[in-house]
Design a protein that fits this description.
The complex is a heterodimer of chains A (111) and B (115). Chain A is built from no helices and 11 strands. Chain A is mainly β and 111 residues long. Chain A is globular and about 40 Å long. Chain B has 115 residues and is an all-beta fold. In chain B, 0% of the residues lie in helices and 51% in strands. Chain B is built from no helices and 11 strands. In chain B, the strands form 2 sheets. In chain B, strands 2, 4, 5, 6, 9, 10 and 11 form a 7-stranded mixed sheet that branches. A 4-stranded antiparallel sheet of chain B has the order 1-3-8-7, with no helix packed on it. Classes of the chains: A mainly beta (111), B mainly beta (115).
Chain lengths: 111, 115
């Protein structure tokens, strides 16, 4: 059972554009929603995260928008740069130790 | 601090061979995890250990065993490797924090090919 559905699988954006990646979750017990960034040949690293008591979290050019009623959240990358080219994973976690990941989005930012 | 280290970085096995993937962390974290990453499948949890002396199955445990040797080390063993276990394996560790910095720290991965 896939508890976190992520779309699109791949995304191509021009430099300076806005990248948007969407996730939907099923488990209403989830109370922590991170985004991880992974560069080729490296392990994933935490980029930004949100808890459902707020509807938006911004860190620099990266923003999470969270819609609790729709059970959806999204990552927005403003002024996308070629250095942002990576694979992005959303995740969901409740009170357990386990973090469930989406299947990933490969982002390519063209110069 | 080295963070999370994994050995080996690359490995090629023949079907039926066994091997152990090693993972160590120097951040004094309680929880450790093993994931596999396959194209289009994301990161899938194999096993995890919430504390020294405990281990639990994740989403895809079949064909694997783990040992939490001490607080620092968490190993993953393939007893009889199969081609379906060709993948990139990541180890991660996590300290129990609240707020939005509940972070898993990943190692660099082990790229395993089973022929």
């Amino acid at each position: 059972q896939q508890q976190v559905k992520q779309s699109p699988q791949s995304l191509i954006v021009q430099k300076g554009g806005i990248s948007i990646i969407n996730c939907a979750y099923e488990n209403t017990a989830f109370d922590y929603f991170p985004w991880y960034q992974q560069f080729p040949g490296k392990g994933p690293a935490l980029l930004i995260a949100i808890r459902p008591d707020v509807s938006e979290k911004k860190e620099g050019r990266f923003t999470i928008s969270f819609n609790k009623s729709a059970k959806q959240f999204s990552l927005h990358i403003m002024d996308s740069q070629p250095g942002d080219s990576a694979t992005y994973f959303c995740g969901g976690k409740g009170g357990s130790e386990k973090l469930v990941f989406g299947k990933g989005t490969k982002l390519t930012v063209n110069p | 601090n080295a963070g999370v280290t994994q050995t080996p970085k690359f490995q090629v096995l023949k079907t039926g061979q066994s091997m152990t993937l090693q993972c160590a962390q120097d951040m004094n974290h309680n929880s450790m995890y093993w994931y596999r990453q396959d194209p289009g499948m994301g990161l899938r949890l194999i096993y995890y250990s919430a504390s020294e002396g405990t281990t639990d199955k994740g989403e895809v445990p079949n064909g694997y065993n783990v040992s939490r040797l001490n607080k620092r080390e968490f190993s993953l063993r393939l007893e009889s490797a199969a081609p379906s276990q060709t993948s990139v394996y990541f180890c991660a560790s996590r300290t129990r924090t609240s707020g939005v910095r509940d972070t898993q720290y990943f190692g660099p991965g082990t790229r395993l090919t089973v022929l």
